[in-house]
Amino acid sequence: MLYLNKNQRSKEDFDKNWRYLLPRRTKFLVPGNDIKLLINGEEFFPSLIEAIENARESIYLDFYRINDDRTGQFIGEILQKKASHGIEVCIIYDAIGSFASNEFFKWLSSSGVTTIPFNPLSLFRSRFGINRRDHRKMAIIDGKTGFLGGLNIAEEYGDPKINWKGWRDTAVKVQGPVISQMVKIFHDTWQKIGGTPIKHIANYIHSQHHKNTIHGGMKASIVGTEKLWRRREAIRTYRKAIWNAKKSIKIQSAYFIPPYTMRLALRRAAMRGVNVKIIVPLHGDLILNHFASRRTFSSLLQAGVEIYELPGPVMHSKTAVIDGVWSTIGSFNHNHRSFFHDMELNLLVIDESFGQEMEKVFREDLARSIPIDPRKWHNRPFIEKIFERFCYSLRHWL
After folding, report:
1. What angle do CA 72, 48, 197 make, to 5 degrees?
2. Which residues are registered as beta bridge partners of 149?
3. Distance, C-alpha 126 to centroid of its chain
4. 20 to 30 Å CA-CA from 174: which of 10, 31, 268, 383?
5. What class, spelled out in words, does domain 228-397 have in CATH?
6. What is the DSSP letter of 134?
7. Could you give the dihedral angle defined by the CA atoms of residues 63, 72, 96 and 42, in that order, rounded to the nearest 10 degrees?
8. Element (H, E) at 154
């Protein structure tokens, strides 16, 4: 999603100060949207649950992971209640990413919830290919309120028994006309995987539905990777901002295994004097990804990129702030899966106040992080280097 808040500036001033960070053709911008940053499960789940409980027409969920655990059951019971009261509840979940049995989804369906797996394993050839997964995390309530970010519906992201505490992650709550673009992306996927007709979908996509739902002054656009042209646009937008950054690049990435072109852009930025800082988890949840990521550090450190490892709960956040005005939040990782295979959904923001809020969160995480010393990095154990090389060879599957 792309936000462009002019803050009473003229179009000429806006273009002069920020246009260098954007592609020449910035499409699908609509005015009248509002964004709220949600940090960790403590903020995300209460906000999502409140929106679900207040739903009057429909609830659409599209999550890579929906688990049959305390969190999944807690939210599942609320969804069942809403469905039994006549609210249309439609769920897309990734067949490999979700750690829940068929019985769990049958339990949801027993009260009228419609659930469809994305790209299940099959003896026959899949139309998507086994390596294409639905990695998005998205919720749309009544076609007016949306949520997207890095959190799945699972205990590790937020446990109801411990006040929704869990991994370090980031999401946003979105209200306004841009929700129609989220609805369209959801509906396109729903149709492709054989979903039944949805009652309110046409009304939600139509702009007239949002005439009286303006909440803020931001222009916005959703950036997804469900189609090839959208994937290229998303990558071009990200790469353009990095290549043209003048002051700073601050990235948080759960699975940092960027392809060569992105590493080159980051190295060139650092070499021309841009302050480039990257925060990765000290202990990731996937060991192969963790060591594959470390394989990419050497050339970045040599170029002057600063890399930090965040201890404590697993960091699953996928964010970036460039020059204090360009920000992105969503499900998109700096890895080959996001760049070439998975379906992702992200939000891009160009706004000083929002950028400052993002930088504040980054500084708080940076203060708790451990810097990697470039002088000592080369002297790490030889066996680690061998294992890193092996894990990196699997990067297209990680």
Report:
1. 80
2. 171
3. 25
4. 10
5. alpha beta
6. B
7. 50
8. none
Closest to 236 measured CA to CA, from 80, 348, 85, 396: 348
Residue pair 112/294 in contact by the 8 Å Cβ criterion: no
Q: Where are the domains of the chain?
A: 33-217, 228-397
Q: Name the helix (H) or strand (E) containing 48.
A: helix 40-53
Do 70 and 157 form a contact (C-beta atoms < 8 A)? no
Under CATH, what is the fold of the domain 33-217?
Endonuclease; Chain A (3.30.870)
Phi and psi at residue 316, to the nearest 5°: -115, 5
Q: State the amino acid at position 343 in one-letter form.
A: M
Q: pLDDT truncated to tens, each residue of the chain (398 aa)?
A: 444 554 444 555 555 566 677 766 555 667 788 989 999 999 999 999 999 999 999 999 999 999 999 999 999 999 999 999 999 999 999 999 998 888 999 999 999 999 999 988 876 656 667 788 999 999 999 999 999 999 999 999 999 999 999 999 999 999 988 888 899 999 999 999 999 999 888 888 775 555 555 567 777 788 888 877 778 888 888 899 999 999 999 999 999 999 999 999 999 999 999 999 999 999 989 999 999 999 999 999 999 999 999 999 999 999 999 999 898 999 999 999 999 999 999 988 777 888 899 999 999 999 999 999 999 999 999 999 999 999 999 998 88
Separation between Cα atoms, residue 30 and residue 105, nearest integer Å: 36
**CA 148/CA 174 separation, integer angstroms:** 8
DSSP structure class, residue 195: P
Q: What are phi and psi for residue 36, nearest 5 degrees?
A: -125, 125
Question: By three-state DSSP, how is residue 278 classified?
Answer: strand
Q: Is 285 left (phi over 0), alpha (psi -120 to 50) or beta?
A: alpha
Token pair, residue 30, equals: 């609509």
